[in-house]
Model the fold of this input.
Amino acid sequence: MSASKHTYLQIHPADNVLVALTDLEAGTIINFNGDSFPLTTRVAAKHKFTVTAMQPGEDVHMYGVLVGRISKPVKQGEAITTENLVHAADDFKLGSRKTQWHTPEVAEKYHDKTFMGFHRADGSVGTANYWLVIPLVFCENRNINVLRDALSAKLGFAKPRGYETEVDSLVQMYKAGKTTQEIIQADLDLSPEESTTGKLFENIDGIKFINHDMGCGGTRTDSVALCGLLAGYITHPNVAGATVLSLGCQHAQASILQDEIKKRDANFGKPLIILEQQKLGTESNLLHEALKQTFAGLIEANKQIRQPAPLSKLCIGLECGGSDGFSGISANPTLGYLSDILVSLGGSVILAEFPELCGVEQEMSDRCVTENEAQRFMELMRSYNARAEADGSGFYANPSPGNIRDGLITDAIKSAGAAKKGGSSPVTAVLDYPEKVTKPGLNLLCTPGSDVESTTAEVGAGANIVLFTTGLGTPTGNPVAPVIKIATNTAVFKRMPDILDINCGTIIEGEETIEQAATRMLDYVIEVASGLKQPKAVKLGQDDFIPWKRGVSL
Done:
């Protein structure tokens, strides 16, 4: 049997492995560069196979860069696995500036496009209008939850329906004497209950109650970073105001938070309520004051209305999680093309997850507009990897079992595909966590590869929408920024339609080009930014928030 040209792919002309676009059985004839050879092993979709026989020590290239080194002899047409390939990446150094790029022609059609957003005093524009209720320290998490229970339902902001009705059905079956097997086989797919409580404040998208496990007991550096992250959320364009609960004696002091707010917005004027439990005395005093002042703040926040804004006011976070062997071929390049469109319009994009830039450091540093930014990027990459190695786990350990199972068997393979989200435009700024975006263009933000920590950081840096690619499926969302979930393949899109918004598997199947998918995605982004559509993560109330404890996470 012979494979067609649509069943495998060479990503870059310099690559010496091919990617299977569908499952290929052993014996399948491969026609490549005038040579024909049979596969010596079965190659699952998304995995790679050799085009020549290779010996230990030989380099493997994908996306035109070094992604691994052969560890044992492999035959021509043999699958690349963790048994015969180990992580390897080229070293990097300060090079020349390579900032020339071609803006996408399709960008012209978006020059006069606008979205309907919430204009803030600092010139930023929100894609939503939220009120935040957050703790400065984990000791206040319970009080945050009490406020959530008291406010959400009464004001019409209750979370989506839980599964209490299903539990009621199980209880009734048990009382009726049903057997264990009958209970297990029962159909619990009940019709959702519709909320009968309308929103009291029509111009507010919700009250977001955030919990975390930081603020005291860790390092002072982590507490200061937490205050910086929380300041990023309070000053975020999607946030109208905030209620902050402090115990009083913790490392993360209210004064540090206020200093971090001023760093991000010297003329900060949003409603900000900071209440300290140890000063107010009883829990009821704290909660009564929080309820009254928060309600008063909501009245003011409700006066905000959506108004037209240019697309240059969009700041897009670029994220991936549950990546697979198609991520770097379909969804990630689509994000890259969209990024280039937005940058050409004066907007901002954030490429983060520094462990997933391992192997493309030279390209990214060369794209920095100044040598100072290039130096900063390289220093952050080296210091981060050194800290990880000191803890016994360098960047090489970044791929998860799911990544490996679906074809991303070295960190460099994963990174080379992940970097495609950043498109081809110059890097205008390099930011360390938890700094805020202040320049249009492509911003590099130092975060871990962990998707929730990275998404949390990107929003803290100012992303007012996040585009999140996934090949395996993930329910990640964010409290204040809409997270749009993009599938890299049609199979996962069909299997998990409740959490995924856009399918880029059409690219793998030859039904759509990267450019076509990118414009389709940008049109959807504009609708989400205008409040006309809600991504699945917003509908499901997926409000994930995990601050980064520096050096602990890849």
Q: What stands out?
A: The first strand starts at residue 8 and ends at 9. The mean pLDDT is 94. Residues 371-390 form the longest helix (20 residues). The radius of gyration is 25 Å.
